[in-house]
Amino acid sequence: MQPAAERMDENTLANASLNTQALLAPLRQVRSLRALERHPHFRANRTAIEYILSTPQIYSPRTAPQPADHSFIRCVAWNIERGIALDGITTLLRTDRELADHDVLLLTEVDHGMARSGNRNIAEDLAYALDRYVVFGPAFLNLDKGNGAETKADGENGEALQGHAIVSRYPIEQVELVPLPNPKDHTAGKERRIGHEQALIATISTPNGVLHCASVHLSAHSSRRHRVKQMKRVLQAMDRRSGPALIGGDWNTTTYNAHRAYRAILGFWRRVAMGVRHVMAHHYPYPERYFERPLFRTIRRHAFTLEEFNISGGCTAHYDFSQDDIRHSLGDWVPQWCFRYIEWALRPHEGRISFKLDWFAGRNLRAERANIVSGLPRNTDRLSDHDPIVVDVRLA
Predict the structure, then answer these.
(1) Which end of the chain is less congested by CB atoms within 10 angstroms, N or C?
(2) From CA 248, how far away is CA 261, in angstroms rounded?
(3) Can you say how many angstroms the Cα of residue 150 is from the centroid of all Cα atoms in its chain?
(4) Using CA atoms, how far apart are residues 103 and 67, in angstroms rounded to an integer?
(5) What was the pLDDT predicted at 17?
(6) How far apart (Å, rounded) are the C-alpha atoms in residues 363 and 305?
(7) Residue 6 has pLDDT above 80, yes or no
(8) Is the pLDDT reported for residue 1 higher than 50?
């Protein structure tokens, strides 16, 4: 798989990794954004760090992919959970009856040079396996290995990048990274990172015309109001591109204000008071009806529609609180004493809970069919904690 620029050999790749580590090593002890901005090493290398985080990486296929034998455009959005289970993800995308026929993949949580995912360049490896055009948009340089069980990953980070990607059967043009406002100080806490979420936007030249696409991951540890603020930035950028457009990704519509742990805890008890069974049936699968309604109103004000692009009430993220990795990840943020109350609330549901977090929104498009690819492995051999969502569209 050849990048747009000349492919780097193994020595060059190793040197790039060493250079990244040389940039990050003196900053390992930083515990706040204020400390980072005052650090002399960061001040001396700020331009280099900002360049890394603002430069998309573009890859071209070995041979131009064959046009699809269908007249619609099949789009998939999937949070691939860093790409830790890349081999299984690749196999699914190549062999699943529905996913193998994709034209556009909007991927969120994509690693490049992280120990937790084997220090692989996930976007490039996917592009090589699928023989597609690819653009990777970095969002964070990681000072740690990750959160929860990821901290125990073997080895050390290489390039230490995490971001998002667009994979396409057709050429990708006019790539843009749109910075989203941070809801918190990412250099504090147990998973420390330099950067901010960024929407990855590109124009894809299909045989039927151009399609503007955005791969969007709204911050998990944010309030409902902040998710609206982040989405507004995406919509403003899409407003500058006329014509058919599709926004897809993990919007973290949990219904919670998760900006601070205590806010989430208070929100949990509010939902207990509402009735756990009621909330799990009528709110988690339908966040647009009440808790997240301002987000969806904002999207509609910018001429995007949602109903025909998504499965109503279809949950896409599934968590089992009996699994250690789920508990470890949540334990980085929520006090341990909370777990017994979570277990109590979920006892009638065998400790399992599902949310609708992943969405499409379209403009000047006609959606012919939407689906959620469910039934993926959920235990130690899981591919991701999210299900892929699919929509077949035609340009209006």
Answers:
(1) C
(2) 27
(3) 17
(4) 9
(5) 57
(6) 6
(7) no
(8) no
* The pLDDT value given to residue 18: 58
pLDDT at 149 over 70: yes
Average pLDDT, the chain: 92
Among 121, 60, 126, 67, residue whose Cα is nearest residue 93: 126
CA distance 5 to 158: 20
pLDDT at 44: 93
Q: Determine the residue type at 89.
A: I
- What would the mean pLDDT of 23-31 be, rounded to a whole number? 94
Asked if residues 175 and 109 have their Cβ atoms less than 8 Å apart, the reply is: no
Query: Model-level pTM greater than 0.85?
Result: yes
Hey, what are 87's tokens?
Answer: 């081999």
What is the rounded distance in angstroms from the CA atom of residue 266 to the CA atom of residue 254? 14
| Token output for 111 | 């690693």
Nearest alpha carbon to residue 365 among 172, 206, 168, 165: 206
Average pLDDT over residues 49-72: 91
Contact 178, 213 (CB under 8 A): no
- pLDDT tens digits for range 209-238: 999 999 999 999 999 999 999 999 999 999
Of the candidates 250, 253, 382, the one whose C-alpha atom is nearest the C-alpha of residue 319 is 382
Distance CA 82, CA 306 (A): 26
Among residues 238, 278, 239, the alpha carbon closest in space to that of 255 is found at: 278
Residues 6+ apart with CB under 8 A from 151: 144, 145, 190
CA nearest neighbour of 110 among 51, 159, 174, 47? 159
Neighbour count for residue 351 (Cβ, 10 Å): 16
Give the closest residue to 261 by CA, choosing from 316, 344, 315, 189: 189
Q: Is 166 exposed, middle or buried (0-12, 13-18, 19+ CB in 10 A)?
A: buried
Residue 7, pLDDT score: 43
Question: Which residue is it, tokens 């009735």?
Answer: 275
Residue 175 parent element (H or E): strand 172-179
Which 3 state secondary structure label does DSSP give 302?
coil
Residues forming a β-bridge with 361: 247
What is the average per-residue pLDDT within 80-104? 96
Cα pseudo-dihedral 219, 225, 226, 232, rounded to 10: 100
**H-helix or E-strand containing 281?**
helix 276-282
Q: Kindly calculate the radius of gyration of the chain based on its CA atoms and give it in whole angstroms.
A: 20
**pLDDT of 194:** 98
Amino acid at site 159? E
